[in-house]
Amino acid sequence: MEVGFLNAAILLIIGISTWIIARIIYVIHRSSKPLYNKPPGPLSTLIVLGSGGHTAEMINLLAVMQMDRFKPRYYIAAATDNMSLQKARVLEDSLMDKAQVELGGTSQFMQIYRSREVGQSYVTSVGTTLVALTHALWLMIKIRPQVILCNGPGTCIPLCVIAFFFKVFGIRWSSIFYVESIARVRRLSLSGLLLYKLRMVDQLFVQWPQLKSKYPRANYVGRLM
User: Fold this and answer.
1) How does the average pLDDT of the chain come out, rounded?
2) Distance in angstroms (rounded) separating the CA atoms of residues 30 and 24
3) What average pLDDT does the segment 22-45 reach?
4) How many whole angstroms separate alpha carbon 67 and alpha carbon 15?
5) What's the whole-number mean pLDDT along residues 116-125?
6) 60 near 207, Cβ under 8 Å?
7) Rounded CA gap, 223 and 2, in Å?
8) CB–CB of 224/183 below 8 Å?
9) Between 6 and 56, residue with greater pLDDT
10) Cis peptide before 145 (omega within 30 of 0)
11) 152 vs 186: CA distance, rounded Å
């Protein structure tokens, strides 16, 4: 009886593991292809901001996009980064007409806990990382974006990881677009490298030809910002 139960448990584990591996392979293969055959309606979009140049570059990128195709828009920045959200609000205010103001607009602004603060010890960062992942999971369940835009801040990693596994388990398909900073000339940032190596990003864009040579799956698009 016990042997039969053990064999059944082993077969179940093998079956689940096989299914997960097959789904991961499918998601990686499918992510490199267009998601829609015809132009869809507006896409709910999560925009990850980061302190310093990350937000400046993202705002410049958003300023030249067809923003009416990406709404509602959800801006997320680290809990200690108020300046980035202020810049996002200024951008959104410039986009809103009177009717949108009366309806409350099409954007929301949120903050997320950091996995690790600058100078924080690696020992204590284990606990803060778990908190950050839990918070990221709650935000992703709440937002369920169709598109994720990011360009380097570390806060994008837990969000992108959760989005990837949402695709694996069939919860939500979020297309992840990563635009590497113009400042990255010879190698990808740590965030970009992780997403590239783990194949979690749908499209990764670089702004220097030497990066395309070093990372062949990246898309070289010239200077964007």
Assistant:
1) 86
2) 10
3) 81
4) 44
5) 62
6) no
7) 64
8) no
9) 56
10) no
11) 15
User: For the domain 40-220, what is the CATH code?
Assistant: 3.40.50.2000
- Triad 50, 162, 38: Cα angle to 5°: 90
Q: Report d(CA 162, CA 172) in Å as an integer.
A: 10
Residue keyed to tokens 């709440």? 142
Sheet strand arrangement including 203-206 = 107-112, 73-78, 45-48, 147-150, 175-179, 203-206, 219-220
> Taking a C-beta distance cutoff of 8 angstroms, is the pair 114, 132 a contact?
yes
Tell me the CB-side half-sphere exposure of residue 77, using CA atoms within 13 A.
21
Structure confidence by residue, pLDDT tens digits, 166-207: 999 999 999 999 999 998 999 999 889 999 999 999 999 999
What span, in angstroms and rounded, lies between the C-alpha atoms of 53 and 145? 24
